[in-house]
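Collaborator request, handled under Task 6.
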Amino acid sequence: YSLALRGHEVTVIDPAFRWGPAGLHTGHRCAAMSPALSRDDNLMSRLSRAGILLAGLRWERFGGVARRCGSLFRIGAEEAGLWRGSLAHWNFPPTWMQWCDQEDTGKRCGLDLPAGGIWMEQGALIRVPQLLEALLSHERIRLRTGKVASLQRMVDGWCARAEDNSPIARAQHVVVAGAGATPGLLAGALPGADFSKLLRLQKMGGQVAYFRAGAVPAADSVVAGAGYWLPADQGVHVGGSTYEFDVENVRSTPQGHLEVAHKVADLLGTDHDAILCGLAEPAGWAGSRVALSDHLPVIGPADAEESLWLACAYGSRGLSWMTLAGEIIAARLNGEPIPVERELLRSLRAR
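Structure tokens returned to the collaborator:
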């Protein structure tokens, strides 16, 4: 989308388009976009701010996609002093984050929670399928249903080839946004290049669960901690999420619904059976994410000519990183100022 806005003709190739523009997120009703938090304001926190602010500005034009409702990250009493000290040290604007005492959670979240935490006004509920459909509907973006098995360097750019070696598309510049398939594509495209960092990518499956509004405690904001709880949207609350490592076939299961119910109950200070009894139909959605141990994405050129680009390792923060990735790549290709400082840009390198 960032490239198309600048006049580039873009072809996006994905086998999941057989389910429509939302791809694998078909059925994923909505998700939370909240800033990453760290007491030392680490690289991930700083990148998260940049990504969320860019996303908020970019998605304003899409009506009905993003609903800014704020987010409360719950902090237990044993850590409250440390976090309050960090907030005082960094002196963030209150429009970004501020401390919320337990007695003020009802006013902020619409629920009286068992502990306070950090209130983040930029927190938002995102309708994921609608967002993807809006982004990919640009007139300069063409969708192709297919799987890229290999990339071949040509005199004038690259050729994406299918498993039978037939050409799918050609272009001067290619962005590989293939999650766990990225290392394999790079090995074929740039033989001998060192991408050992990407060999450490870890695939994580997981699911969210859906609960009927009115049958479970209602919140006006996102409530987060060891799990999360979203405000009702079209009569359904979304709770999340589970983590399953090295799982090939990810699916929504009753065991996963139970795990989510326990997490939500702990967040809200209620009984998990009261949450579980409100399961909706369908009861949830399952998907996978790929991440590195530092929880940072990989965004940048893979070759010296800057004709092959990477955008992967988003982990659980795809909504935070996606606009940032698009703007970094598009800015570089168009000779524009890069939207983050050099230290942050270096942290995103593939090697």
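The cover message to the collaborator said: "The first strand starts at residue 10 and ends at 13. The chain is about 30% helix and 25% strand. Please let us know whether this matches your experimental observations."
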